[in-house]
Amino acid sequence: MASLRIREAKEGDCGDILRLIRELAEYEKLSDQVKISEEALRADGFGQNPFYHCLVAEILPAPGELQGPCMVGYGVYYFIYSTWKGRSIYLEDIYVMPEYRGQGIGSKIIKKVAEVALDKACSQLRLAVLDWNKRAIDLYKALQAQDLTEAEGWHFFCFEGEVMKELAGR
């Protein structure tokens, strides 16, 4: 494989990040769920108080090649708080284009998020995975992640849209 670089995303990367988000949604057969825009990614990730942070994986051209780096994956994370364990980091999305899988890129993104977590004094790195994504589950287990569904019986829930408005009395 050519040279790989994992780096913090820049505001100008939002178009490529959105392209990869759409690829991930298509892979998960959820493409109709993507409502985010490039403008929202820019505003939410690169303002004064960002809602998320993003790492990108790039294949760098060999010396003498004319094209620039090619973005082949990303990891979106943000900080959360555990009332039992304190500072935590949540890896919302991790995606590597299919033709680049099996080369350790996903592991490198996860390891970089773990570095960020330790640099920010976080006690844990959390993520969720769809139950059918055996390849990702196997990767997380190989990296020694604990499956909280198996270990502690946790279930994740979500309120959104009209239900959230109803809860808020709006």
Short characterization:
The protein contains six helices and five strands. Helices cover 35% and strands 24% of the residues.
Can you tell me about this structure?
- This is Spermidine/spermine N1-acetyltransferase family member 2.
- Residues 4-169 form the N-acetyltransferase domain.
- Helices cover 35% and strands 24% of the residues.
- It has a five-stranded mixed beta sheet, sandwiched between helices.
- The chain has helices at 14-27, 38-46, 105-119, 134-142, 148-152, 161-167, and strands spanning 4-8, 53-59, 70-82, 86-96, 124-127.
- By secondary structure, it is α+β, with helices and mostly antiparallel strands.
- The termini are far apart.
- Helix 1 crosses helix 2 (38-46).
- A hairpin with a 3-residue loop joins strand 3 (70-82) and strand 4 (86-96).
- It has a single domain (4-127), classed as Aminopeptidase.
- The protein is built from six helices and five strands, in the order E-H-H-E-E-E-H-E-H-H-H.
Structural descriptors:
170 residues, 5 strands, acyltransferase, transferase, Aminopeptidase, Diverse_Substrate_AcTransf, alpha+beta, diamine N-acetyltransferase activity
- Provide the structure class: alpha+beta
Question: If classified by CATH, what would the architecture be?
Answer: 3-Layer(aba) Sandwich
Q: Which value, in Å, is the CA radius of gyration?
A: 17 Å
CATH class reads Alpha Beta
The pLDDT mean sits at 93
Integer tally of domains:
1
Task: Give the helices and strands as they follow along the chain.
Answer: EHHEEEHEHHH
Q: In terms of per-residue confidence, which ranges show pLDDT below 50 for 5 or more consecutive residues?
A: none
CATH topology: Aminopeptidase
Largest sheet, order of strands side by side?
Answer: 1-2-3-4-5
List how many beta strands DSSP finds.
5
Protein name: Spermidine/spermine N1-acetyltransferase family member 2
Pfam family, one: Acetyltransf_1
GO molecular function: diamine N-acetyltransferase activity; identical protein binding
Family: Belongs to the acetyltransferase family.
